[in-house]
Request: fold
Amino acid sequence: MTDEAINEALQLLRVSMPQERVIFDRDILETYARDETPDISGIPDILVFPVSTREVSEIAKICSRLCIPLIPRGKGTGVTGGALALEGGMLLSFEKMNKILEIDRENLVAVVEPGAITRDIDEAAKQYGLMYPPDPSSLDSCSIGGNVAVGAGGPHAVKYGTTRDYVIGLECVCADGDIINLGGKYVKNATGYGLIPLLVGSEGTLALITKITLRLIPRPACAIDMLIPFSDIGRALESVEKITVSKIIPAAIEFMEEDALHLVAEFLGAKMPFPAARAHLLVELDGHNDEEVLRQAQNIVTLLKIDENNILIAQTDHEKERVWRARRSIREAIAHKSPIFLAEDTVVPRASVQKFILALKKEFTARNLYSIMFGHAGDGNVHVDVLKGDITRDAWRAMLPDLKAAIYRTAVSCGGTISGEHGIGFLKKAHLPIAMDEHTLQLMRRIKQAFDPQGILNPGKVV
Ligand SMILES: Cc1cc2nc3c(=O)[nH]c(=O)nc-3n(C[C@H](O)[C@H](O)[C@H](O)COP(=O)(O)OP(=O)(O)OC[C@H]3O[C@@H](n4cnc5c(N)ncnc54)[C@H](O)[C@@H]3O)c2cc1C
Reply:
């Protein structure tokens, strides 16, 4: 932004909202120059913290009038550079719009502001025996607005689906400041075009989400976790296929290769069970009573022909938290080992996970790269992380486009696509043509044009 545009924007903002929530101090702006995407940053020219939909609307009107970029931001845990002001402009943080407005027990819905933390929504639902199932591993720190904007998922997707499956109402502010209301507290809706599914996953490029109505479900009374060690990756992945085909539907099936847990052990300074295993599956089973859940566990032991004395079963909240903490810490442990790394969330049909992972392992070995695979094997969304390690920054940057393209092409050739839950953001934009034909891309650009004719909302992202 030019100095003139910044001054004009600041003057207009002065009329619309209190000055303490309009920031242009360089030191503070710098703290908002990053999200959790390694090796990429962008400093905004102005940072605003609205507390109401009216204020969001006023901010959008100002940006539209001055034709300046407006970038929405939740909690900045995104991993595709989506919440970064890469071209400068005004960064709108939803941090202060973080209330859980209502848990409606009669209609089984929650109404929340976009800055509410995902875990807090599930905890609020729990008070009433209800559950908000989508559980990105970042659930303690990410916002529901960010989850809706990218269509986030988590381990529970295998049984319960992703954020997309729970959004039944949205209040949004359009690029010109108009406020729109879509859906409501009803679970069926055949009224006109499905704009809610379109806005879920639009990554802040079509509208600013200011209020969300979420479907809740009755909370299963019992859940246990099984940590199962395997002597090789292939056997672990074969077991996922066996469980899927057997029609047992666990609440989660997470895969972790050997080094994932070794890095976590080092990072957390804790001992991990089964240190000699080459791969692990973490299987969560839930149901109405202990008997039902333990029967499912026994069925899995029989199906996979595993030694029941050589698995860990976590039944208490403390035991469960220990195994899940390890799983949720893998990304941080990788970042600790190698602050620069490639983290891909490609997704393939469930039955192709083994073929996909083994093909990539071969590719990385041939390129002499250190990779770690882990994540949501039960829904085909295994994470593929490649660590920069000792490779020089220049060599790393030079190899990235080709490496990413190789990963994406392998996913597409296995019948999958390039993002299962993180979105496209800035990082994958150039590679979108690997997953979509030109007609589809043109249609997406026309949708963007219809919502945001000036192109001010989160420019440079998605399409
Ligand atoms: C350790 C770790 C583990 C993770 N695990 C998972 C996982 O299991 N599953 C998963 O899906 N993701 C995961 N992520 C990625 C990340 O947490 C999710 O993408 C999350 O949804 C981002 O939420 P946020 O509030 O941080 O959004 P931000 O990063 O602030 O923003 C993300 C995108 O949403 C847009 N946006 C934010 N709020 C709004 C709004 N109110 N209106 C319009 N647009 C908006 C932004 O412009 C940006 O494009 C993980 C990240 C980390 C660091």
About this structure: The chain has a mean pLDDT of 96. The chain is about 35% helix and 20% strand. Residues 222-327 form a domain with the Alpha-Beta Plaits fold (CATH 3.30.70.3450). The first helix runs from residue 3 to 16.
